[in-house]
Amino acid sequence: MVAPLLPHLSAIFHVSVRHTSFIEPSYLLGYGSVTLVYASLSDRYGRFPIILFSLCCFIALTFFTSLVQSADQMILLRLLTGLGAGGIAPTTIGWIGDQFHYEKRGHALGIFFGCMAGGTAFGSCAGALLEPIIGWRGLFILVAALGFAVLLLILYYQKYFRLKKEGAKENFNALFHTIREIMSKSRSWRTYLYVMFNGMFHSGVFTWLGYLFFKSFHLGETGVGLALLGYGIPGFLLGPIIGKMADRYGRNKIIPIGLLFGGVSAVSLGLSLPLVASNLLVATLSLGFDMTHPLFAAITTTFSSKRGASTGLFAFFLFMGYGLGSLLFSLIVKSGLNQTFILFGSASLLASLLSLWAFRNEK
């Protein structure tokens, strides 16, 4: 929701767009920094209580964000929101790992990440369309209200989500022992490095994608929101299908193609192509996300029987990558917006080539 509003927020708070762009990495870095803690707690106390706590934090702190008076205050509140909400993704991935065998896990995770991508696109579009009507403060209040509605639904259907507590006798020392064991394997650290890199790539590009359309095509908030809508459509529609394809044909065949799609899309977006072509590239960029992240998640669920640790590491590297990518793009964008898009895209093309070797043995 925030990405297409960056130019508007910069005008409201009387700061540069580059300054307001730090709103994004503050949330993501806060989120990523606590995922391992929440993952361990979900192994110890169960998945449901952690989801409940993180969702409550998200609702309350999102509401309080609507009351801020400056960009710096918003950056701080977004950091706190990330710290509170950081248990949602790793705990959900761990729950999926508990419920589905590896042969069907790609399909389940495809749905999960498809909904993530769809939510990203819907939030970008809805935020841009609704801001002129209810204001940016109203948007944060609306998101908090929607989160509260989800909370009520989860409480009503909690019997479907509650699982027997796992690893109740384990402590944080056991967690770090498990992490050390996981990271001692070359297969593990290669995968997590790709998770972080891919998170950096997509977060950096998406954070500045709205501003690219604003600057290159002089679109208003509504136009930017509609342009970004294409980012989530492929994942929302094709995520489960891509997951099934990976389950059937092998993740080693799909991952390099996904990285290639992302790299080509970013480089092309940096070449100032016509508006229609750029809109199509937003969709192919999203397809690159959908062909990589769910597959990485499925691979990481096999690293240890203690899925809280392995999925916690996944969420840690993913959201730290998100935060670092958004931060890195903001730091080097002074060299030129289009040039930075091309640089990020070129890095993804190189990663695609290297992934042919890195994931050659994955099924």
Word description of this protein:
This protein has a single domain, classed as MFS general substrate transporter like domains (Growth Hormone, Chain: A, Up-down Bundle), CATH 1.20.1250. 82% of the residues lie in helices and 0% in strands. The protein is built from 17 helices and no strands. The chain has helices spanning 6-13, 17-20, 23-33, 35-45, 47-65, 71-85, 88-99, 102-156, 172-183, 186-217, 221-229, 233-249, 251-269, 275-290, 293-300, 307-332, 337-358. α5 packs antiparallel against α7, α10 packs antiparallel against α17 (337-358) and α12 (233-249) packs across α14. Residues 164-169 have low confidence and may be disordered.
Strand-helix topology:
Elements: H1 6-13, H2 17-20, H3 23-33, H4 35-45, H5 47-65, H6 71-85, H7 88-99, H8 102-156, H9 172-183, H10 186-217, H11 221-229, H12 233-249, H13 251-269, H14 275-290, H15 293-300, H16 307-332, H17 337-358
Helix pairs in contact: 3-6, 3-16, 4-5, 4-7, 4-16, 5-6, 5-7, 5-8, 7-16, 8-11, 8-12, 8-15, 10-11, 10-15, 10-16, 10-17, 12-13, 12-14, 13-14, 13-17
